[in-house]
Amino acid sequence: MAEQDTQPRGETAPADFAATIERLEALVERLESGELSLEGSLSAFEQGVRLTREAQRRLDEAELRVRSLTEGNEGSGDLQAFAPPTEHDGEG
């Protein structure tokens, strides 16, 4: 059996992670309202699964980017503690 498209016809993936989460939250609200028919609930649930997978894919990509930026020359994971910006950062 062939894998189905990740987006239904006419629907595009949100442009960024925050938009994906916003759409997912809106779907959850619709589902929790109890106003959808069974078919509408199933459709919303399917959309939610697709959005969840998209959000996870984006998180995985971000994690890989962070790891590649923080790894040492030999591939060791020498992570540095995060230091929040000070008042003087960015001035100059």
TrEMBL record:
Main enzyme class: hydrolase
Natural source organism: Halomonas cerina
Assembly description: Heterooligomer composed of large and small subunits.
Function: Bidirectionally degrades single-stranded DNA into large acid-insoluble oligonucleotides, which are then degraded further into small acid-soluble oligonucleotides.
GO molecular function: exodeoxyribonuclease VII activity
Keyword Hydrolase: yes
EC numbers for this chain: 3.1.11.6
Subcellular compartments: Cytoplasm
Catalytic activity: Exonucleolytic cleavage in either 5'- to 3'- or 3'- to 5'-direction to yield nucleoside 5'-phosphates
Similarity annotation: Belongs to the XseB family.
Swiss-Prot/TrEMBL keywords: Cytoplasm, Exonuclease, Hydrolase, Nuclease
One matching Pfam family: Exonuc_VII_S
Keyword DNA repair carried by entry: no
Region (Disordered): 67-92
GO biological process, one term: DNA catabolic process
Residue intervals passing through the bilayer: none
Record-level GO cellular component terms: cytosol; exodeoxyribonuclease VII complex
Domain of life: Bacteria
Protein name: Exodeoxyribonuclease 7 small subunit
